[in-house]
Write a structure and sequence with these properties.
This protein has 16 helices and 13 strands. The chain is α/β, with parallel strands linked by helices. The strands form two sheets. It has a seven-stranded parallel β-sheet with strand order 3-2-1-4-5-6-7, with helices on both faces. A six-stranded parallel β-sheet has the order 10-9-8-11-12-13, with helices on both faces. The structure holds uridine-diphosphate-N-acetylglucosamine.
Length: about 375
């Protein structure tokens, strides 16, 4: 069975790495893969650095779709993936996460009567203002196999009518990558440049359209965070989307330390050694949960509730006023400790590959 492994944007790369490594380790005669990069993220800092650091082989195919509006990007990926499958079909399309590439390739594969497996299926924020939620819902409405990270995902899928035998609770591939690389985390150059010390700074990441696309609200949010942080520096690896808005605003503050998007090993070094993280990312809330690092999420909802109920994450909403009391709690050392959700144990990819071998008997 030839499996197309689809990756397009930064948060996909850490999810596919352990699956590829496991397929290569197992070398099962019935299982081969083709790595398809859609080109949704194309900067060295957003893509190539992750391939290098996580030892992901060069993609077999790069669809070079690039940026665009939601529809332009999705359409470009669809047209190019369809053309690939028509010329050189595979047997199963494996998509991960919730980015535009995930949905685009699922639709194409399904319309060509090809099976689709969704890694990280079933999670829901129930917030249709996020493109990612639409991507999740569409992908899950047509996928054939669901590799899930939590019991909540299972409940969501069952409620939507997915037969239980198509759902496999395997754990979290992103955590496989985190645990496999934890000893390799690397001090970023900004550590010495900024004179950082363990536990002496906060890391912030922001890229959701709701938080960053409107210049005045982005500046209000960031200035409230800075004011609440007393004398603690805020390290802000800035996503290209946020940089576009932030740089035209020309706003600065001595305690706000802007740095380029960091490679995987450097970013997680910074997180692991921080006092806490402020973010609107979903994946980072899973990584901070496993590392036991306090995490404040600037969103009204999360598709990963276990990071709050079990882990170190707390949802603050998007109103800047919610940030001050949360930072106070962090500075006072009163943040909850948190535990680790079931099966986030570093062995997810081996469960997935075991299942793929069984699926190859059905196809
Ligand atoms: C995408 C994903 C989001 C994920 C995020 C992580 C969707 C709908 N969103 O959002 O789920 O959390 O990636 O980064 O798929 N850009 C560059 N260089 C790049 C890539 C993008 O400069 O390598 C610029 C683009 O020109 C664009 C902006 O960044 O203006 C946004 O990129 P895009 O892929 O559209 O969405 P993200 O906001 O990155």
């Amino acid at each position: 069975m030839l499996v197309d492994i689809i990756a397009g944007a930064r948060p996909n790369f850490m999810k596919i790495a352990p699956i590829i490594h496991e397929i290569e380790r197992v070398k099962h005669p019935k299982l081969s893969y083709r790595l398809v990069h859609t080109g949704q993220h194309y900067d060295k800092r957003m893509s190539e650095d992750f391939f290098d650091q996580l030892n992901i082989p060069k993609p077999d195919v790069n669809l070079e779709s690039g940026s665009g509006t939601q529809a332009e990007q999705t359409a470009k990926i669809m047209v190019r993936y369809e053309s690939l499958l028509l010329k050189e079909p595979s047997d199963l399309t494996l998509v991960v996460g919730d980015v535009n590439s995930t949905m685009a390739c699922s639709i194409v594969a399904k319309k060509l009567n090809q099976r689709v497996a969704h890694v990280e299926g079933g999670i829901r924020s129930f917030d249709l203002s996020m493109p990612e939620e639409i991507n999740r819902m569409v992908t899950d409405s047509i996928a054939d196999y669901f590799f899930i990270t939590s019991d909540t995902a299972n409940k969501n899928l069952i409620k939507e009518g997915v037969p239980g035998e198509k759902i496999f609770f395997v754990g979290n591939t992103m955590i496989d990558t985190l645990l496999a690389n934890r000893k390799r985390f690397t001090k970023p150059s900004c550590w010495d440049d900024l004179g950082l010390q363990k536990g002496g700074y906060i890391v912030m990441t922001l890229h959701r359209p709701a938080n960053v696309d409107e210049e005045s609200s982005l500046i209000e949010l960031i200035s409230t965070i800075i004011e609440s942080g007393e004398d603690v520096p805020i390290i802000f690896p800035i996503h290209p989307r946020t940089a576009q808005v932030f740089e035209t605003a020309g706003w600065e503050h001595p305690r706000l330390k802007l740095v380029d998007p960091l490679p995987y090993l450097e970013f997680n070094f910074l997180v692991e050694n921080s006092m806490g993280v402020i973010t609107d990312s979903g994946g980072i809330t899973e990584e901070t949960t496993v590392m036991g690092v306090p995490c404040m999420t600037l969103r009204d909802n999360t598709e990963r509730p276990e990071t709050c109920t079990v882990g170190t994450n707390e949802l603050l909403g998007t109103n800047p006023r919610a940030v001050a009391p949360a930072i106070r709690k962090l500075l006072d050392g009163k943040w909850k400790k948190g535990g680790i959700p079931p099966l986030w144990d570093g062995k997810c990819a081996s469960r997935i590959v075991e299942q793929l071998v069984k699926i190859s008997d059905e196809i």
